[in-house]
Specification:
alpha/beta; 5-stranded mixed beta sheet; about 45% helix; HARBI1_dom; nucleus
C-alpha cells in the first residue's frame, strides 16, 4: 500500500509593509502627493469615517484614513497603479475596490451639498456681487458659467452619445465659479455630444433656482455666446457696436475669465480630470468629477495651494471649439436680448 502523500503546509500570507504617510511625510510632501495637508486629510476622513470603517478585526484592514489617502493619490495623478507602488500597501485589486467604496461615500448628496452651494440669500448674493465687481466693474454678477469636457474611455452602452465635437469620448460638465475660484454649482451627468445650452436648460438652475425666483432680482450669471441670453444670464455681443456694447463686452470678457481659470485650477489640482479616465461605467466618472469639485472647494477653504506640475509642461484645459453659432437674433427669444441692451446702456455708457 502506497504511503499517503504528505500534507501541504499552507504558506503564511505576506503583507507589504505600509508607509504611515500621515506621520512620515511633512505637509508640503502630503500636498504634493495627495493635494491635502495632514489636517485636511483627517478633516475629509471624518466626513465619511462611519461608512469607511470596516467592522472586522482582521489584520491589515485599511483604516478610513488610508482609504482617503488611496483615493486622493488616484485623483491627484489619475493612475491607480501609483496607489499600490507608493508603499501604501494595497494590491491593485484592493486599490480599485477602495476607490469605488470611498467615491461612493464622498459623492453622497449629503456630503457634496456641505461644500458646493449656490448663493440664493440676499447676504450671499451681495457678497458674490461685490467680489465680482472688483474684477472689472461688472455689476450684479454672482457666478461665471461654462462647460468643460472630461475625457473618458469608450463606454459599452450608448457609446456614440459620448463622442464630442473633437471626436473623443467625454462627459460635458457644467460648472459655475465665484470670483474666488470656488465652485458654486456643478452638473456632471451629460454625455459629450450634448450642447452646453441644453445642459443649462435642463438644469435645476434654470428650472428651479432662477425659474422660480429663488435668487434676488438683479443677480446674473456670465456665460459665453454658446448660451442663450436671459435676464439672469448675460452673454457677450457677437458684433458689438462702439460705446456701451463694446464697453460691456470688454468687462464681460475679463470678468468671465474667472470660470476659465477656475477650470484650469481644478484640473491642475486633480490631474485625473486632465487625461482620460479609464473607469466604467460613465456614472462612476461623474462621481469622480463631483468629488474633485468638492475637494477643490475644501482646499480653497483651507488655503491649500496647488502644487506645481511634476513635469515642466504647463497644464491647461483643452477647450473644444466654440459652440455652433446661435440662430439669428430674429429666431431667438427677444426678452433676454432686449434686457442685455438695456443693461449695457445703463451700466456701460461711459468707459470707466
Amino acid at each position: 500500500m502506497a504511503a499517503p502523500a504528505p500534507l501541504r503546509q499552507r504558506r503564511p500570507r505576506r503583507f507589504r509593509e505600509r508607509k504611515d504617510v500621515l506621520h512620515d511625510l511633512d505637509d508640503g510632501e502630503l500636498i504634493k502627493r495627495y493635494r491635502l495637508d495632514r489636517a485636511g486629510i483627517i478633516f475629509v476622513t471624518d466626513l465619511v469615517r462611519g461608512p469607511l470603517t470596516n467592522p472586522t478585526g482582521r489584520n491589515q484592514v485599511l483604516t478610513p484614513e488610508m482609504k482617503i489617502i488611496v483615493l486622493l493619490r488616484y485623483l491627484a495623478t489619475g493612475k491607480m497603479q501609483l496607489c499600490s507602488m507608493d508603499d501604501l500597501g494595497p494590491s491593485q485589486q484592493t486599490v480599485s475596490q477602495v476607490i469605488t467604496e470611498t467615491l461612493m461615500a464622498l459623492s453622497s448628496n449629503a456630503i457634496l451639498t456641505q461644500f458646493i452651494t449656490f448663493p440664493i440669500t440676499p447676504h450671499e448674493t451681495q457678497r458674490k456681487i461685490v467680489d465680482f465687481q472688483q474684477i472689472a466693474g461688472f455689476p450684479g454678477v454672482i457666478g461665471a458659467i461654462d462647460g468643460t469636457h472630461v475625457r473618458i474611455s469608450a463606454p459599452s452602452e450608448f457609446e456614440g452619445e459620448y463622442v464630442n465635437r473633437k471626436g473623443y469620448h467625454s462627459i460635458n460638465v457644467q460648472v459655475i465659479f465665484d470670483a474666488k475660484y470656488k465652485i458654486t454649482d456643478i452638473v456632471a451627468k451629460w454625455p459629450g455630444s450634448v450642447h452646453d445650452a441644453r445642459i443649462l436648460n435642463e438644469s435645476s438652475l434654470n428650472r428651479v433656482v432662477f425659474g422660480r425666483g429663488m435668487v434676488p432680482d438683479g443677480c446674473h450669471l456670465l456665460g459665453d455666446s454658446g448660451y442663450p441670453s436671459k435676464k439672469w444670464l448675460l452673454t457677450p455681443y457677437l458684433r458689438p457696436q462702439p460705446g456701451p456694447q463694446s464697453n460691456y463686452n470688454r468687462a464681460h470678457k475679463i470678468t468671465r475669465s474667472v470660470v476659465e481659470r477656475g477650470i484650469g485650477q481644478l484640473k491642475r489640482r486633480f490631474h485625473v480630470l486632465h487625461g482620460e479616465i479609464r473607469v466604467q461605467p460613465p456614472s462612476k466618472v461623474c462621481q469622480i468629477i463631483k468629488v474633485c469639485a468638492m475637494l477643490h472647494n475644501i482646499c480653497k477653504d483651507r488655503n491649500i495651494y496647488i502644487p506645481a506640475a511634476e513635469d515642466d509642461e504647463e497644464e491647461v484645459d483643452d477647450p473644444l471649439p466654440l459652440q455652433p453659432p446661435q440662430p439669428p437674433a430674429a429666431q431667438r427669444p427677444r426678452e433676454g436680448l432686449l434686457y442685455r441692451d438695456e443693461f449695457a446702456d445703463l451700466h456701460f455708457r461711459n468707459d470707466n
